Amino acid sequence: MDLLSTVKAPQTGLSLASAGRLESCTVDDGGRLTLTLTVPREQASALSALCDDAAKKLQTLPNVTSATIILTAHRPAGVPDPQPGGHAGSLPPSAAPARPAAGAGHRPLGGAAPAPGTPVLPGVKTIIAVASGKGGVGKSTTAVNLAVGLGMEGLKTGLLDADIHGPSLHRMLGTTGKPDVVEGRLQPVQAWGIRAVSLGMLVDEKAAMIWRGPMVMGAINQLLTEVDWGDLDVMVVDLPPGTGDAHLSLTQKVPLSGAVIVSTPQDIALIDARRGVTMFEKVKVPVLGLVENMSYFCCPNCGHNTELFGHGGARREAEAMGVPFLGEVPLLADIRSSGDSGVPLVIGAPNSEGGKAWRAIAHTVAAAIRVLPH
Prior knowledge:
- With 374 residues, the chain is α/β, with parallel strands linked by helices.
- 30% of the residues lie in helices and 20% in strands.
- The chain has two domains: 4-72, Fe-S cluster assembly (FSCA) (GMP Synthetase, Chain A, domain 3, 2-Layer Sandwich), CATH 3.30.300.130; 124-371, 3-Layer(aba) Sandwich (Rossmann fold).
- The protein is built from twelve helices and 15 strands.
- The strands form four sheets. Strands 8-9-5-10-4-11-12-15 form an eight-stranded mixed beta sheet, sandwiched between helices. A three-stranded mixed beta sheet has the order 1-2-3. It has a two-stranded antiparallel ribbon with strand order 6-7.
- The longest helix has 19 residues, at 353-371.
- It is elongated, with a radius of gyration of 22 Å.
């Protein structure tokens, strides 16, 4: 906190130490320091501009290899946002709370806000989401193998982990360390022929992301607008399970070209997959198709297939809803171990049953992407 007090805003003299309240401070075994501060909402924009310089100061502490400062700013309970233009019954200007500066809003990852009107993902031709109505169906595994598979199809591909509360793609890609920052913009990590960013690359794996909806939406907005994604043919976005804030934030912020829905074969998972299809239809995002994951278990000893969760349910659901069926992926120990080892199955075992299934799905999606309007 003494170091933070030395970095001050030139106009106001405010520092992170004087204006902020310490919420958490963690240092992992690699010396990566993560500091979370609560700051007044009206001062969040000015204070976020101090984070980069303050982080450099923190890196001078003994045994600290890198530092990240996360700011949280909450609206006081019971105080609504002012309505633009005003209307009958609205607060008068003198009583209305001050509106944050343009581009400020919730900025949980810190840093300076981009200038108003800055284009979002200007070099990205196509954006597709990978979603599921229910957790535990292999959505993130699908996102990783699909993205790497699209790269193997010759497409310049990016992968964004928008699962803020459960980021895992950094582990599945085998990346270590934090992304570089160049001229205030985060640089995606290069892994297996694609570019990727996950909140898991920025925070301690043991840290719990106890964030409400506005903070989640703010983090997704920052990962979209403040990462130097460059020119991409396609960006794959791994969404959290369900149909909540992250999904709405993404569909409102960027023009999604399509969505891939992941489900297991049993009816209880298909109920939620159906909700996912319906949600994307309501926001006018075409569903590129359904993937049936854990379609069957292939015994490594005798080669016999056992349908642990049933079989063919996603295919029947796709036919009933009039959306494409992209393929089925077996339940294999190799798929689990590939996620833990950080080597996607399409790279580590491309000729295995799972590897061939992912490659076929990526080939189908690549063909669909090439005919989509950009």
